[in-house]
Amino acid sequence: MLNAGDYRRVFDCALKSSDACFTVLARARASETGISRLGLAIAKQQLRRALDRNRIKRLARECFRSRVPHDSGLDFIVMARSAVNRRTNRQLTDSLVHHFQRLIAKQQQSQA
C-alpha cells in the first residue's frame, strides 16, 4: 500500500488475527482490481534496532509474495510485536502464513 488513506481504510474496519509475534489486519479492496496488497507497520517501540525492523519487513514481504494468492482481493497490514525478536525466521514465517490463511478464510466466510 502506498499512502496513508489506504492504511486508514484498513485500520478503520478490518478483520484481525493476532498472536504473540504479529497482529495482521485485512480488509477487502474497494477498487475493481482484486490484487492483494501488503502494508507494514513495524513500530520502533517494539523493535528498537533498524536491522531487526528490516529483517521482519523482508520476511513479511517474502512470505506475502510466496504464500498469498494475488487475486484474494484483500489489503493486509502486518504489525510486529515484541516477541518477534525471540523467534526464528521459520517460526515467524509459519505464524504469518497462518494469519494470512486465516484472514482469507474469514473474508470468504463473510462473503458467503
What does this structure look like?
With 112 residues, this protein is α+β, with helices and mostly antiparallel strands. It has a single domain (4-102), classed as Ribosomal Protein S5, domain 2 (2-Layer Sandwich), CATH 3.30.230. The chain has three helices and four strands; from the N terminus they run αβββαβα. It has helices at 4-12, 50-67, 89-111, and strands at 15-18, 22-28, 37-41, 74-80. Strands 1-2-4-3 form a four-stranded mixed beta sheet, sandwiched between helices. Strand 1 (15-18) and strand 2 (22-28) form a beta hairpin.
CATH topology name, in short, is Ribosomal Protein S5, domain 2
Q: Give average pLDDT, whole number.
A: 92
Number of strands: 4
- So, CATH architecture? 2-Layer Sandwich
How much helix is in the residues? 40-55%
Largest sheet: 4 strands, mixed
In DSSP terms, counting alpha (H) and pi (I) runs of 4 or more, how many helices? 3
Order of helices and strands: HEEEHEH
Q: Radius of gyration from the CA trace? A: 13 Å
Name the beta content range.
15-25%
Contiguous uncertain segments of 5+ residues: none
